[in-house]
Write a structure and sequence with these properties.
mainly alpha, 166 residues
């Protein structure tokens, strides 16, 4: 697996922000009211970020003690990659909502939903940061993603003592 690129996350965020702005405008024109942004949105994103941080701390400790099944590490890295993308999309959508609400800041309901959108943007950025940290923790030196061939000196010594047939 290749590490998550900042360009991918930025692209997802910008495209999602445009989609969020368009969605807010369409809902306003079609339904005659603004898009609802409940305060449970940033709360949910904060819970997800906290769960990722707790998982990262536990994974880091287990990796230091070398008590991690490689498949668990790979699945955790896949989870972190999915969470970073999800956080980028959520951040973008709520940023689009925020931009739309700023255009109507004189309306109290738009201001309240704008603050909820702002809190969701901050929480989404925390999800992205926690997911990228978890992904970084799960990287293994010599896994073949770098310029090396994925072997280390112990493998070479083992080949010398007991050559592999095949």
């Amino acid at each position: 697996m290749t590490p998550t690129s900042a360009r991918l996350l930025l692209t997802l965020g910008v495209v999602s922000a445009v989609a969020g702005w368009v969605l807010a405008d369409v809902i306003d024109r079609a339904a005659g009211r603004s898009v609802p942004v409940p305060w449970t949105a940033p709360a949910t994103l904060l819970i997800l970020a906290a769960a990722l941080v707790f998982w990262a701390v536990g994974m880091r400790r287990r990796l230091r003690e070398k008590r991690v099944d490689p498949f668990v590490a790979a699945r955790t890295a896949a989870l972190a990659m999915a969470a970073s993308r999800t956080g980028a999309i959520a951040t973008g959508v709520y940023a689009g909502f925020l931009v739309w609400f700023v255009g109507q800041w004189w309306i109290e309901a738009a201001r309240i939903r704008g603050f909820a959108s702002l809190a969701s943007v901050v929480a989404g950025l925390l999800v992205v940061a926690a997911a990228l940290w978890l992904e970084r923790i799960c990287r293994i030196k010599g896994d073949g993603d770098d310029d090396d061939d994925g072997t280390d000196e112990a493998d070479s010594a083992a080949d010398w003592v007991h050559p592999r047939v095949g």
